[in-house]
Design brief:
Layout: E1 2-5, H1 9-21, E2 26-29, H2 32-41, E3 46-50, H3 58-66, E4 76-80, H4 86-95, E5 99-102, H5 107-161, E6 165-169, E7 175-178, H6 201-211, E8 215-222, E9 229-241, E10 244-254, H7 256-319, H8 324-352, E11 360-363, H9 364-372, H10 376-382, E12 385-388, E13 393-396, H11 398-414, E14 423-431, E15 446-452, H12 485-495, E16 499-504, E17 510-517, H13 520-530
Parallel strand pairs: 1-2, 1-3, 3-4, 4-5, 12-14
Antiparallel strand pairs: 6-7, 6-10, 8-9, 9-10, 11-13, 14-15, 15-17, 16-17
Length: about 525
């Protein structure tokens, strides 16, 4: 904007029109005092100032403007119709003007001067803005450098107080700073300590340096005093500022004692593992021998028992028909030897479960249907009713899982109520987890098989006892058995990575639940995760 100052409006108006025709914005003042007020409140690129004015003349106004920090650099063009002498022109320049024109004014020359002075003023303002910006940036950088120096001092103080060897590396991979511990392993503050020939750390560190990621590695450093290598953990991390790496900070932490202890421990573990493998081999051999021994002993024990039973039966049939008391005693002996024979057979079955066997897909329905044929006589004799739903094909050891069903169905038939035909129901459903009360899930990886009867049942407070070998809840004279059947079932289910549980109320039947994985490989994986 251009300010025109003249005490006569008729002089201001033509100048305003001429300047506005050339796209200049203008303002005007009719006295020196009014001009000073406007200069205080506005910014002007050029001031056209008349010399002869009442009150403050143009020279006094120019001198006053020179005292304003805001407008002291504004170009002033003096106009005068009277004071054309050299002394007045000189006074105009000394008062702060940059040009002095006499009236009548050549408008073309005035326009050229105004354009020139406006352009110079704009350039001057731009230079001032650049200067101010540079000054601000210098101050910011100076402040940042001071803060950086303080932080570096703090960092050096921290690194110096560490028990580890500590150092910093610049972004051009040069060592900037090392603490006092460094000189126990290197005399040169600009070179890394000597490492063991087998510890190729530099190549790996350079790769991490290029990628800008943290580096960590075990390394052996040569101590200057002892010339011995000690184990250290080298860790170098990047220091970021506004997402850009500005330096790296590294430490060597002494782990020599831990490393030696670990190596000693690993050696002991290796020796212990070897001993355990040898012991395991011995145990496998011993176990195999014990199984052979159990088979031989059971065979040798059962043979004299068979003879005792045979001869006792012969004696009873030939010589004791007329002596009821003697026949009763002999009958007890026959029953005892029969129980002894069953006990030997059950113990032999229990010991055989330690023998390694392999899983294979098994059609459980076909297996149970075949098994039920062995109970035909008992089923007919007791008028039992057995129903079976669809059973899935899952991974099992067929001979062992058959024994589980055999023991459970046998118990359901055996522990029936007097004069009440046994009713046995076998059903199955898929579940998601290996839990007895898991909700049904058609896509589950486990199968829950339920064997339910209407027999005498048992009190659930004895639930933990029924799966323990030789534990019985019933009178030996009322129900035959050795107390091994459910223990065998429990051991088989454990071997199948499954579960066996039961629910019952006395005199209201029992419900046995078998939880078996559909796929044994998946079951083993889940078991490792659970453990």
């Amino acid at each position: 904007m251009i300010l025109i100052v003249d005490d006569r409006p008729e002089n201001i108006l033509p100048l305003k029109k001429i300047l506005e025709l050339h796209n200049f914005k203008t303002d005007s003042a009719e006295s020196g005092e009014e001009a000073l007020k406007k200069i205080l409140n506005n910014s002007y690129s050029v001031i056209i100032l008349d010399v002869q004015m009442p009150g403050m003349d143009g020279f006094e106004v120019a001198e006053a403007i020179a005292g304003f920090s805001k407008a002291k650099d504004t170009p002033i063009i003096f106009l005068s119709a009277v004071n054309k002498e050299k002394k007045f022109i000189t006074k105009g320049y000394s008062s702060g003007g940059i040009d002095y024109l006499t009236k009548p004014v050549d408008t073309d020359i005035l326009l050229l001067k105004v354009k020139t002075f406006c352009k110079l003023f704009e350039q001057q303002q731009e230079l001032k803005a650049i200067q101010n910006s540079l000054q601000t940036e210098i101050e910011i950088r100076k402040q940042a450098q001071e803060e950086l120096a303080v932080r570096m001092q703090e960092l050096h103080f921290i690194l110096e107080s560490l028990p580890q060897i500590a150092f910093t590396i610049s972004v051009n991979s040069r060592i900037e700073y090392v603490n006092e511990h460094w000189f126990q392993y290197s005399l040169d503050a600009t070179a890394f300590p000597e490492t063991h020939p087998d510890d190729n750390v530099c190549e790996r560190w350079e790769k991490h340096f290029e990628e800008g990621v943290e580096f960590s590695s075990d390394v052996r450093l040569k101590q200057l005093e002892t010339q011995e290598y000690r184990y250290f953990l080298l860790k170098i991390i990047p220091v970021l500022q506004n997402g850009v790496i500005i330096r790296w900070v590294g430490t060597f932490t002494d782990i020599h004692q831990q490393k030696i202890a670990n190596e000693l421990l690993e050696h002991k573990v290796e020796l212990r593992t070897r001993e355990l493998l040898d012991k395991n081999s011995e145990l496998e051999t011993t176990n195999h021998e014990l199984q052979q021994f159990a088979w031989v002993v059971s065979h040798d024990l059962k043979e004299p028992l068979r003879k005792i039973q045979t001869f006792n039966n012969l004696v009873m049939d030939k010589y004791l028909n007329e002596n009821p008391e003697a026949a009763s005693y002999l009958n007890r002996s026959i029953n005892s030897s029969a129980r002894m024979s069953r006990l030997i057979s059950d113990l032999l079955d229990y010991s055989r479960l330690s023998v390694k066997a392999y899983f294979q897909p098994t059609d459980l329905r076909a297996l149970v249907e075949e098994l039920l044929q062995d109970f035909d006589e008992v089923i007919v004799d007791k008028q039992a009713k057995i129903t079976m739903d669809a059973l899935p094909v899952i991974d099992t050891i067929p001979s062992q899982i058959r024994q589980v069903f055999q023991n459970l169905i046998s118990n359901a038939l055996k522990f029936s109520k007097p004069d009440v035909p046994p009713v046995i129901k076998i059903s199955a459903e898929m579940i998601k987890t290996r839990e007895a009360d898991a909700p049904a899930d058609p896509d589950g990886q486990f199968c829950r098989i339920i064997i339910q009867d209407n027999g005498i049942g048992f009190d659930e407070k004895f639930l933990d006892r029924i799966f323990v070998i030789f534990q019985r809840l019933n009178n030996l004279n009322s129900y035959e058995g050795t107390g091994i059947g459910l223990a065998i079932a429990k051991k088989i289910m454990d071997k199948h990575n499954g579960l066996i549980s039961a629910q019952s109320i006395e005199n209201k039947g029992a419900k046995f639940l078998l939880i078996l994985p559909v796929n044994q490989e998946g079951a083993l994986t889940q078991k490792r995760i659970e453990n």
